Amino acid sequence: MFIKNAWYCAGWDYQVSQGKTALIARKIAGERVVLYRKLNGDVVAMEDRCPHRQAALSMGSKEGDELRCMYHGLKFGSDGKCTEIPGQSNIPERACVRVFPVVEKDNWIWVWMGDPLKADPSLITDAVGPSHPDYNTRPCYIQIDADYRLENANLADLSHSSFTHDATIAMGWAQALAKPQHKVLPRGVKTDYWVRNVPVPKFVEHMFPPGFMCDAHFDITQTVPCNWILHFRVFMAGTATEGESDGMLVLDSWSCQAITPRDERSVDYYYSWGVSKATDRPGLSDLLKEGLDEAFREDKAMLEGQQKRMEEKPNFKTFDIAADAGPGKMLWVLDKLIKEEASQSESLIASMA
Known about the structure:
5 helices, Naphthalene 1,2-dioxygenase Alpha Subunit, Chain A, domain 1, oxidoreductase activity, methyltransferase, Rieske Iron-sulfur Protein, Vanillate O-demethylase oxygenase, 2 domains
């Protein structure tokens, strides 16, 4: 089940060009959407479904700012209204396509899937995108065939990094033994913690002297439907046991991740890792991208295996451990907002009866 009154990431801005045939098909929270750019550069998002016979508008043709269905030739303006039906002059009132509010921010394209009157751009998560002047950021993408609730739980619990990502981004058992602080937000969870005097991840250990140890700070904001923004800093191991590390800063970075459910068992995962220009060096940003790509392939295998087993035994009784505190809080927020939205919808229907 999905929250409707929320901004969903529909991809990176570079994925929707001004090309004549650049009609981008997406499936977002169970709804088929087609994206294209108008001549002024604005992105249009409309339902990927011609109201005449449900043909895919993403298989259509751009004509200026308008979109023609290539099944029977109906043409629609960027507002969704039909402007032409070949062979007849009258246009039925029902000949219109749903159009969704769109905002571009931090190199992501955001689509509001609910009530257009409630589309508040201030609800879009803040991120550090590839165009940020102070960071060298590499954008990435992967599709994972798993429920977005599993993704929410996975991201709210970094203890899994010590095991799932032992060969890539794990810092030994540091994440598994950490004591993160979780603060519930109106539309998500804020997580903050330090790990101290720990090894660097294996995929970068060749860049440091043998036995090099570090301190690392994780500052995470996770929001609905499934957005995860990490400010990740690494220092040479210092002597401080509380608060800011007193070691030398060696990495200042942001990993920004927007996970969009296609349906109840698959997601589009748009992510990046960017290094501050002050702590970057030639090839480092590319190396971090390579490491994150491999780590997410590890996540993909784990989550897709989990999805299959949950489908095989949907009533299987699991149990919680301490590491489930973050996932529990994040899923509680998500479920609360979904229930509130459903209640408001039921009240509106009742008032109209």
